[in-house]
Amino acid sequence: MTTTAQHLQSTTTLRNDVKMPWLGLGVFQVEEGDTLIEAIKSAIKFGYRSIDTAAVYGNEQGVGQAIREAIAETGIDRSELFITSKVWNADLGYEETLAAFDVTMEKLGLDYLDLYLIHWPKAGKYKAAWRALETLYKQGRLKAIGVSNFHVHHLEDVMADAEIIPMVDQVEYHPHLSQLALREFCAANGIQLEAWSPLKQGQLLNEPTIAKLADKYGKSVSQIIIRWDLQNGVVTIPKSVKPHRIAENGSVFDFALSDEDMALLNSLNRDERVGPDPDNFNF
Fold first, then answer.
1. Of 6, 22, 27, 160, which has the fewest beta carbons less than 10 angstroms from its beta carbon?
2. pTM for this entry
């Protein structure tokens, strides 16, 4: 099984022809401050072009500062970067989401966002929020719009009367939660699946089967999992603040997993989550 991801700047093409990097840096639970800024700058200097944040992470201001500093220090153009943020549950609704987006943009200090996601499918709220995302997209303030943590039935609900079909669905995805039905639905409908918590918040680092594959390929467990993501056609955003780990996570383009080993990793699925089930998360 192969992937179009050949290097760290390789992209997948979303349904509206926007190019989205296959691999990015997530900054979940990274507090504002020097650690956050240095992690993002380290990632960009290493070659990452995608940074994923969210309003609820409380670090959009630092992300924006890091992006500006990285641009100044490396000379790369803003257009080369792919920046994602998400609207939180408390701000779902048409007017509320429009207002929340303005706050996000003020904190980031950016003229536009590459991808904006509805963070969770809060019952009774997400369809109005989706209309807001469609408005922002048509205004040119967003290059792409999507959702996060949406099951198939949530996607079907949005798509039933949406003007624009979601371009991305970012979900918990790792060998213990391979979400095959969702992946097949997204593929059939031109929705790019994206993985958060690809290492199951570190719980997979001691998985014996993956450890054996790491030994076989001369790679780390995290590299094996990230490569599995890519070969399954899933964009992934591993989180780290350590420059050596950021570099390691980005060094997955010099090997390929065999079909047999992909099947072995696929067989590890337990439908087991480390985060909440979207059907039962209404905060």
1. 160
2. 0.97
